[in-house]
## 1
Amino acid sequence: KIIVSFKDGHLELWNINSAKLIHKFEKVKFDGLPVISMCAAPVVDIVAVGLIDGNVWLCDVKQDRKLFCLGHPKGTFPTSISFRSSEQNCSQIAVGLSDGQIALWN
């Protein structure tokens, strides 16, 4: 399975083996803002979605809902997103920004 993002900000879940649309997300929409980057979290059904406006939304794809938003400096946008989990069950998100900075979130 793969999540595909579109220029208008909507997301779809596709089965790449059968080339069939499994689900079109109705509640997780980004009001026409282009999706720049995405990354699956180590937690099942959670995806981080980076937008051209600089925000990164964490979304529950199983429940089709936005969980929360991570904001970044005005004029930057997320070019990459990565998750890290430690042995102490502490998760971190690293967001590479268009100006070369890396933002770390606990």
## 2
Amino acid sequence: REPCGEQRGDERQCCWAGRDGGERVECWHPREQFGVVMTRAFSTLAEFIERAAHLCAPSGILAAMKGAYPEDELAHLPEAFELRRVVRLNVPHLDAERHLVLMGHRR
């Protein structure tokens, strides 16, 4: 395995891009982009976009599972992406808020 040499901030983090899995999302560069890239309990929306946008096709969707409505996070989306929709989810036997946030490349 070879380190991809990803540079994040002032520190160089070595993330491994190997065939056996375990790659960090920002280091994985498949041949084709995806129509949907989904996450659950990963990070803020802005960080998800920063790390995973390269995986999303131009007409694709970044989908993030969130708990409470992420009002503050939605106010800080990167310029290249826009909110498409927030869907309130009803999970049986769960007394808590859940939302699915759908974002795409700005049109």
